[in-house]
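Memo to structure team: turn this sequence into structure tokens by end of day. - J.P.
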Amino acid sequence: MGCEDGEEGLELEDLEGIGSATAEKLRRAGINTVKQLACIPARELEEISELAEGKAGEAVRSAREAVFPKVMTAREYLEKRKEIRFLTTGSKNLDNLLCGGLEPGITELIGAYGTGKTQVCLQLCLTVQLTRNRGGLDGAAFYIDTEDTFKPERLYPMAKALGLEGDQILDRVHVFRAINSDHQFEGLRIAQEYAADRKANLIIVDSLTAHFRAEYSGRENLVSRQQRLNTFIHQLQRVSTMYDAIIVVTNQILDIPEVIPGVKPARPAGGNVVAHGCTFRLWLERSKGMTRVSVIDSPKHPKNTAWVMLTEAGVSDVEAPR
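Reply from structure team:
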């Protein structure tokens, strides 16, 4: 869950033990809000700020106490979750699969090339702009493109199918082309600024693992790659927590050696780091000219399947084949 709405107007100087000098040091380190301070680990704050030893931990504790309740009953937590605003995917089949649509947290779309991962992401860039009575958030999207798959002209026929008209649809989609893993981290830093300013309710990373796999190839680099990937995912989680942002990432699949003759099993890239870091995991695969979407891991959704078709108008509903 994100931070309490009642703390929106709280300034750093309003926290116990933080005066104007300490607040200025925090802002120079890029910590501008109480929410950001509450979510950053004390050790990380010590590394990036000019705060004396022990002062960082004191500042973080003060912010956490102001923002997060120490304990909630399950009933209180349920009531809080009722405030969540879901985002429609533009497909009734997918919305039903997700028990109402996308919610804050990290949703992972896993699949081979051509299964529709990017098409779903492009459609979400438009549904987030819909009014709330139509399942949207009346908001905007921030798209971190790591594989040069974002094509803005694709949005026009999708928008028409959703009843969105005009070039303004493009103005509410902010695109960052990440050319390597370091640049991908930079994109996330900028995305956080857009989320903080409410310029982006939805953050998309397409794809999550491509740069890490290319730059840290070989078993000798596996540990370094997984540590770096884990840091990126943890930062995604932090952004979602701070701003109730909906985060969608795409992921590639790896073929593994044949175990059963004639069958080529596959698994998502990124291993346990990605599996543990993503909240909701969906597997997309092509079958009979359609795309089957299955929930493979979720703390709330039953394991189920939905069917869609990729068309000029976007991701459209179809009946399950018999």
